[in-house]
Automatic annotation (TrEMBL):
Coiled coil, from the record: none
Protein species of origin: Pilimelia columellifera subsp. columellifera
Protein name, as recorded: Bifunctional diguanylate cyclase/phosphodiesterase
Domain EAL residues, every copy: 24-279
Complete-protein stretch covered: 477 to 762 of 762
Amino acid sequence: AAKEAGKGQYASYEPELDERANYDAQLGAELRLAMDRGDFRLLFQPVVRLPDGAPVGAEALIRWHHPQRGVIPPDEFIPAAERTGLIVPLGAWVLNEACRTAAGWLNDDHATNPWTVSVNISARQLREAGFSRRVSAALSAAGLPAERLMIEVTETAVFDSHAAANALREISALGVAIALDDFGTGHSSLGLLRKIPVNVLKVDKSFIDNITGSTAEATIATAMVSLANGLDLGVVAEGVESAAQARQLHLIGYRLSQGFHFARPLPAEEVRDLLVAETKRAPLAV
Ligand code: C2E
Ligand code: MG
Ligand code: MG
Ligand code: MG
């Protein structure tokens, strides 16, 4: 009976695996072509200060401009790029392009405000030998100071991987900041915060959605800001969509946020204009 049950399970599982392999092979081939054609673009979503919304940085978010299917969001191709390994060359492109773009902004706003550009890094990239060298090469090729770059990794990408932890130590030693993305949704072992260098917690949108009620999420989001303050980390609320959420976040101690309420992901030139305007409004003494 056990054998039969096993057989039954396998039979129903096989087509799924098969489909995924097919899907990955096809999408992988398309991604390769798209890389050769240069069909990827970066948008940048501002990270802002609460309560006034002044920009303090921007996160690079990839888009695939498909000649037939139009603009494809990352959730539809990053997972396959990770499974096929194509995330390594694609992620290297993102890193270089983001550094190059940010170096241009720096040039235009005369570098007086301490904004940073953030780049999402997949587990696969982080665990690849020599990743920190890729990062320093991207910085020097672009002429971007390390202090201007932040990389975003998920708890899951780092969890249980010595290679990932070592890469983060090397990157941190370069002067690049490290953010834990989607914080609270992965392997939230708080012990992780002692094992790897972390500068910023990005509290996942799922905790922010219900922030205005007396909900479990509101309690957790409040605990996270206190955790960040106690450990001397920055903390960003992700996915802020309303003024009411922004007010509540500020009330419970959040000083940084990101979300459609303040700005959607924007073309690089629009972010540059925001940063330049902020520098003119509030020039830093240098
Ligand atoms: P993420 O790093 O957590 O990025 C934030 C996502 O939330 C972005 O989606 C952003 O557009 C969206 N978002 C921001 N504010 C709001 C809001 O107020 N409401 C709602 N509903 N959504 C908001 P996007 O650009 O579709 O990216 C999705 C995910 O794809 C990213 O999540 C990240 O994990 C991944 N990704 C994007 N670009 C890259 C990349 O260059 N490399 C890698 N490895 N992953 C990337
Ligand atoms: Mg991110
Ligand atoms: Mg996130
Ligand atoms: Mg996310």
